[in-house]
Amino acid sequence: MCWRTCAAATNRAHEDQLTDAIDALIGVFGGTFDPFHLGHLHMARRARDLLHAEVQVVLAARPWHRDGPGGSVEDRWAMLCSALEDEAALSPSDVEIVRDGPSYTVETLEEIRRRSGSDEPIVWVIGRDAYDFVPNWHRVDDVACLGHFLVFDRGADSPPRTHHGFRVANGPADLRNHRSGRVWFVDESPPPVSSTAVRAMMARGENASALLPRKVWAYIESHSLYRSSDERQGEGKA
Ligand code: ATP
Questions:
Q1: How far apart are CA 197 and CA 202, in angstroms?
Q2: What is the pLDDT of residues 182-221, one digit of tens each?
C-alpha cells in the first residue's frame, strides 16, 4: 500500500489560503487516532490558526506506551485521510507508518526535520493528558533540543508543569524566535471527546456519529469497525 496516495496527503495546495507567514513554524499533531474524532479535528484546526502554520497530523502506527490499538493501521490511516480531505493546511503524515519499530516521537521529530530540509522550529501539538506523560518518553532530553510543545488543557484540574529542558512561551512569536525547548500552554479545552468513549459507544451498539467527522463515521459504518462480536454476528439476521 502506498501511504501517500490519499487525497489529503497532497492537499498542500490549500497552503496558499494562509498568508506568507506559513513556513515560519512547522506544526505536528500526533496520535493513535483510534478513531480520529471531533476533539482531534478541533485541536488540529486551532493549532493551525494559533500557529499560523500548516499542521502535519501524524498517525502513531505502533504506539509504545499503550495497548495495541483496536483499529488496524490501514483503517486508522484511511479514517485520518478522509477526515482531513477538505481541510486547509492540515495534512496526514505517514512518517511513523513507513518507519519500522515503535513510534517514538523523538525519531519522528528527527525525520520531520530531515524531510522539511529547513531550519524552521517544529511545534508538537499535544493534549494535557499526553503532555503529563512526556517525562517517560524515549530520549526525552533530545526532544527539548528538537522542538517546542503547544499544549491544550483538556479540562485538567491542576496547573501544568514545565518539564526539564523547557521554558514557558508567551505565544507564537516566542516559538518562532527559538528553535526548540519552549512550551506554550493554551487555556482551551477542545470538545471533551475521546476515542475510548467512541469505541465504548460502538461496542454497546450506540450511534457515535455526533462525536466524529462525517466521513470517519461513514467509514466506521461501512467497515463495521468497533462493534462487539455479538453485534457483528447479529448483522444479517432477520
Ligand atoms: P484514547 O481514548 O484511545 O486514549 P484519545 O481520544 O485520547 O484516545 P489519542 O489518539 O490518544 O486520542 O490522542 C492524540 C492526542 O490528542 C493526544 O495529545 C491527546 O491528549 C489529544 N486529545 C485527544 N482528544 C482530545 C480532546 N478531546 N481534547 C484535547 N486533546 C485531545
A1: 9
A2: 999 998 888 999 999 999 999 999 999 999 999 999 999 9
Set out the domains of the chain in order of their start, with CATH numbers. Answer: 2-192 (3.40.50.620)
Q: Which atom of ligand 1 is nearest to the CA of 128?
A: 20
- Ligand 1 atom having least distance to the Cα of 32: 10
CA of 234 to the centre of ligand 1 (A): 31
**Cell numbers describing residue 132:** 503529563
Chain segment 45-101, per-residue pLDDT in tens: 999 999 999 999 999 988 776 666 678 999 999 999 999 999 999 999 999 999 888
Residue nearest to atom 6 of ligand 1 (CA): 194
